[in-house]
Amino acid sequence: MEEHVKKALVDWNEKISDVLKGIEKEYEDVKRELQVYSYKFNITKQVVQSTINDEIIRNIREMYHKPFEQKLNELKGSIKELEEKRKVFHMFVDKIAKVSGIEDGKPQASAAENAA
Fold first, then answer.
1. Nearby residues of 92 by Cβ (< 8 Å), 6 or more positions away
2. How far apart are CA 28 and CA 82, in angstroms?
3. Cβ of 81: how many Cβ atoms within 10 Å?
């Protein structure tokens, strides 16, 4: 491969890797928030199941349970989108690395990240 082509691919790989790092950070942030809302949702669900008073149940559902459920579903959708983005950008990094012969010391996603 000609040196100018290889250099261009290495530069592109670095840019794609930066995008991938941003996606990974966003994924981890959303994942943490998803865990929090999962706990909140399950706790309110358990409280509602253990409560007898219908008025209290309605209030809990309106104030907590329904908003937590909506946020939980929204976060699940975001996680799926981010997983797809991660997959696509990992493919970019892998393909560029294969074509340009980038070695392990150069910018590219690790095997552990690719497995995620």
1. 16, 20
2. 10
3. 14
User: 66-100 and 3-50 are packed helices; what angle lies between their axes, rounded to 10 degrees?
Assistant: 160
Cβ-contact 96, 12 below 8 angstroms: yes
Residue with tokens 């996680």: 79
What does each of the 116 residues of the chain score in pLDDT, given as a tens digit? 788 888 999 999 999 999 999 999 999 999 999 999 999 999 999 999 999 999 999 999 999 999 999 999 999 999 999 999 999 999 999 999 888 876 544 444 444 444 44
Ramachandran assignment for 2, one of left (phi > 0), alpha (psi -120 to 50 degrees), beta (any other): beta
